[in-house]
Specification:
Number of domains: 2
Shape: globular
Number of helices: 1
CATH topology of the largest domain: Immunoglobulin-like
Order of helices and strands: HEEEEEEE
Number of strands: 7
Largest sheet: 4 strands, antiparallel
CATH architecture of the largest domain: Sandwich
Structural class: alpha+beta
CATH class of the largest domain: Mainly Beta
Radius of gyration: 19 Å
Length: 132
Amino acid sequence: MAYRERGAGLIEDALEMLREADRLHRRFFTLSLDRAGPCWEPPLDVVETIDEVIVSVALPGVPPDAVEVRSDGVSLTVVGRRAIPARPGEAIHRLEIPYGRFERRITLPAGRFEVVSRSVQDGLLVLKLRRI
């Protein structure tokens, strides 16, 4: 009886890992009606201080001029493209890092904000927003 319980636990673990893999795949490669084609979503952090909101978007390997930041004061959208690092004639053996178009849209904390600074630090796009 204990063997069956242990085996059932392994199956449950395997199914959970498959669900997680599917969730990650959907997160990185999505197709939405309000987006211009397939894209992936970069992970980000949002930290609110007394004076500002700091949004850090993980975009290693993406040049700053390949990123567009839009805000309507209530939400923030980061759009761009990470180019595949291979040239014609080169063989790609593995691609695990998402490439192509990306877009991430978030609702900001309560209030209205404006982007006051934008910098790139260690592969993170760091946006500072001030409450207006």
